[in-house]
From TrEMBL:
A single GO molecular function term of this UniProt record: ATP binding
Protein name (record): ABC transporter ATP-binding protein
Pfam families per UniProt: ABC_tran
Spans traversing the lipid bilayer: none
All residue ranges annotated as the ABC transporter domain in the record: 9-242
SMART domains, sorted: AAA (SM00382)
InterPro entries according to UniProt: AAA+_ATPase (IPR003593), ABC_transporter-like_ATP-bd (IPR003439), ABC_transporter-like_CS (IPR017871), BCAA_Transport_ATP-bd_LivF (IPR052156), P-loop_NTPase (IPR027417)
Tagged with keyword Ligase: no
Similarity annotation: Belongs to the ABC transporter superfamily.
Organism: Streptosporangium amethystogenes subsp. fukuiense
Length: 252
């Protein structure tokens, strides 16, 4: 197993929901620098809500989130991004009418010295995703689903974040493309980037992850190393259901 880096994200007693409806309840876990941390669980378990609460899109009703020792609870999403945590939402959320190059440039929004770093960072993204280099002037809406996911990740990487929150990057992609996206996540780990990966493809996510957790009805059911989770009887039973649900959604 990998040696653990320092504690980078510490989630303590985190609860949040929509209006008066609670969704996640008393969630506690830590993620270390350089880890790929998988968050798995069935539809409606609260995975997206958890990511949104960490990235400041939702305000917690109680509990806290610390990033590299700084309490970021209640910070605006913009301030959290500037502090090095970037959330790539479910469904990629690209802009129609903007090209690949424009999306990458947009990733540098608010970055100091962005004109100076643009070329070097673009080169780094293209090195990870050569297909983006070939399609710099293409509009986002004409890209394939896989290319769009790569662009969404590439745009986030332009900021050189410390932490990436990645919500279901495999949705709607063919298996061979999913493998390519996961291979890139694996390479990000080599660069000491920390990734929280929400996935319905439990098998593949655990093969990639160092540690992770299983959510159910807004609570953590198990947290541990990827190997421990893969052995967990509750997850193994639930996983078959989740895998089928994921496959059905991918056919839509
Ligand atoms: N914007 C919202 N307003 C009200 N309720 C919401 C909203 N988003 C999600 N919920 C509810 O919160 C619960 C958790 O949803 P969430 O999207 O966090 O689950 P998830 O684990 O990401 O599911 P999926 O695998 O389908 O993406 C569900 O019961 C859902 O209906
Ligand atoms: Mg979700």
């Amino acid at each position: 197993m990998r040696t653990q880096g320092e504690e980078l994200i510490t989630v303590s007693g985190l609860s949040a929901g929509y209006g008066t409806v609670p969704v996640i309840r008393s969630v506690d876990f830590t993620v270390h620098t350089g880890e790929i941390f998988a968050v798995v669980g069935g539809n409606g378990a609260g995975k997206t809500t958890l990511l949104s609460t960490i990235s400041g899109l939702l305000h917690p009703t109680s509990g806290s989130v610390r990033l590299a020792g700084t309490d970021i609870t209640g910070w605006s999403p913009e301030r959290i991004v500037a502090h090095g945590l970037v959330h790539i939402p479910e469904g990629r959320r690209l802009f129609t009418g903007l090209t690949v190059a424009e999306h990458l440039r947009l990733g540098l929004w608010n970055v100091p010295n962005r004109r100076k770093v643009e070329r070097e960072r673009t080169d780094r993204v293209v090195d990870l995703f050569p297909v983006l280099g070939e399609r710099m002037d293409a509009y986002a809406e004409v890209l394939s689903g896989g290319e769009q996911q790569m662009l969404a990740i590439g745009q986030a990487l332009m900021r050189e974040p410390r932490v990436l929150l990645l919500d279901e990057p495999s949705i709607g992609l063919a298996p061979v493309i999913i493998q390519r996206v996961f291979a890139v996540v694996d390479r990000l780990r080599e660069q000491n980037l920390t990734v929280i990966l929400v996935e319905q493809r439990v098998n593949q996510a655990l093969a990639l992850a160092d540690r992770g957790l299983v959510m159910r009805h807004g609570r953590i059911e198990v947290v541990g190393t990827a190997a421990e989770l893969a052995e967990d009887p509750v997850l193994r039973a639930a996983y078959l259901g989740a895998a089928v649900a994921g496959e059905q959604r991918n056919k839509e």
